[in-house]
Amino acid sequence: MIEVNTVSKSFDRTRVLKDVSFHVKKGSIYGLLGSNGAGKTTLMRILTGILKQNNGQVHVLEDGVFENESVKQRMVFIPDSLYFLPQYTTRQMADYHRSMYDSWNEERYEKLKNVFQLDEKKKISQFSKGMQRQVAFWLAMSAMPDVLILDEPFDGLDAVMRQKVRNLIIQDVAEREMTVLISSHNLREVEDICDHVGILHKGEILLERDLDDLKADVHKIQVAFNEDSFQPEESNLDILHKEKRGSVWLLIVRGNEADISAGIKKHRPLVYDRLPLTLEEIFIYEMGGVGYAFENILV
Amino acid sequence: MFELDVRSRKPIYEQLVEKLKQLIINDVLKEDEKLPSVRELAQQLTINPNTIQKAYRELESQGYIYSLKGKGSFVHPSGKVDNEEELKKVREELKKLFAEAIYLGMTSEEIAALLQEVEGGQQDD
Questions:
Q1: Residue A57: inside a domain, yes or no?
Q2: Are residues A50 and A188 in the same domain?
Q3: Does some domain include residue B26?
Q4: CATH number of the domain that A21 lies in?
Q5: Does residue B6 sit at the A interface (CB-CB below 8 Å)?
Q6: Is B35 within 8 Å of B64 (Cβ atoms)?
Q7: In angstroms, what separates the C-alpha of A153 from chain B's closest C-alpha?
Q8: Are residues A129 and A233 located together in one domain of the fold?
């Protein structure tokens, strides 16, 4: 549905994206994660045809995007900083969208009025940040897109609205197999809703995987041994991170559960606890692996 | 029907598989009863439909449910369900508890007595 192959982009002499490749399947909700300044927004702007890549191919709905109206007809992009036409009310924006999108669904627009409960005759500029974002979702969901691209979508929405918006997105994914690409810093949000994630760092894709597989593949382990004989380096475990607190080792290990348990139990541990990692922890440790580490900073 | 713990570290997909298994084992979902559709469940729980699909596929491969094309998923009537996973987990839990009990000074006789008590209790039912 979305295919990006070896895309590069530079602004002046700064390379923002280097040979980025990733794929989003139809009906999938894909989370694009990344460190600050990794190039997420640039990538999204290329995907939506706002910018043109220097190298590589971008295909959305089996076709190039740049200057291609028929593809853009079927996708909606809600950017990080929203834009509405000056002095426009929601109703006027809706009419504008209707003139742009053949798939515009007026019935849906009316139904969503009850969900968001905003006054459609009020100027959007008078709304708060969160309310403006609600307007953006209201318009986006009424346009019935096949591809929905969201840059930091939940920014500014309260907990109730976030849940409502998530529910709306999920309904469209379940019923019409809408494809969704979400970039977010809030990993908890992404964790609940996405089935695939890609991590972007300094313009390169570090990893791209099914979220459940990713979680099943990295484990947090606490072990303690009777004597000090255990040396993590000597074990045949793929250790991403190790730390010793008193006599207890804290290890982040890659591999499947059974192998790790067998590998640890061989050394007869006194204490052995295994916890699945949260996406936030996976992100931090993966980033640490490429030198973007969290350290205790003393100021 | 049920709630998932989104704050838990356990992947949502695993939680789903476990919850549905429990419902089937405890006969809350009866034989040949239809499970909620992927769409319904996705909307009810606000979780990704692909995750639910995956959980259903897993349950099907483990023999808990069967699916009919275009009709949905149903609870498998034969109780032929392999408990290997479940047993392994229980064994681990027991080991931990035994270790604690021994540490606190319980003797093997006392543990054996407890076991007998539990067994006896079940026979009374």
A1: yes
A2: yes
A3: yes
A4: 3.40.50.300
A5: yes
A6: no
A7: 16
A8: no
Burial class of residue B109, CB neighbours in 10 A (0-12, 13-18, 19+): exposed
- Partners of B13 on chain A (C-beta within 8 Å) are 212
Query: Quick one: B94 and B43 in the same domain?
Result: no
Q: What is the pLDDT of residues B75-111, one digit of tens each?
A: 988 655 566 777 888 888 898 889 889 989 988 899 8
Of A16 and A293, which is predicted with more confidence?
A16
Q: Do B47 and A211 touch (CB under 8 A)?
A: no
Task: Tell me whether B57 touches chain A (CB under 8 Å).
Answer: no
Residue A71 CB contacts under 8 Å (≥ 6 apart), including other chains:
A49, A60, A61, A63, A64, A65
- A170·B54 Cβ contact <8 A: no
> Do A181 and A230 fall within a single domain?
no
Tell me which chain A residues have a C-beta less than 8 angstroms from the C-beta of B38. 174
Q: Kindly provide the ipTM of the predicted complex, given to two decimals.
A: 0.75
**Do A15 and A52 belong together in one domain?**
yes
Task: Judge whether A206 and A233 are in contact, CB under 8 Å.
Answer: no
Distance between B123 CA and the closest CA of chain A, angstroms: 35
Which residues of chain B are within 8 Å of residue A166 when distances are taken between CB atoms?
A: 46
Sheet holding A269-276, edge to edge: A238-245, A248-254, A218-225, A269-276
**Domain ranges, residue A273:** 217-289
Asked if A181 contacts A44 with a C-beta cutoff of 8 angstroms, the reply is yes
Residue B115, amino acid: L
A35 and A108 belong to one structural domain:
yes
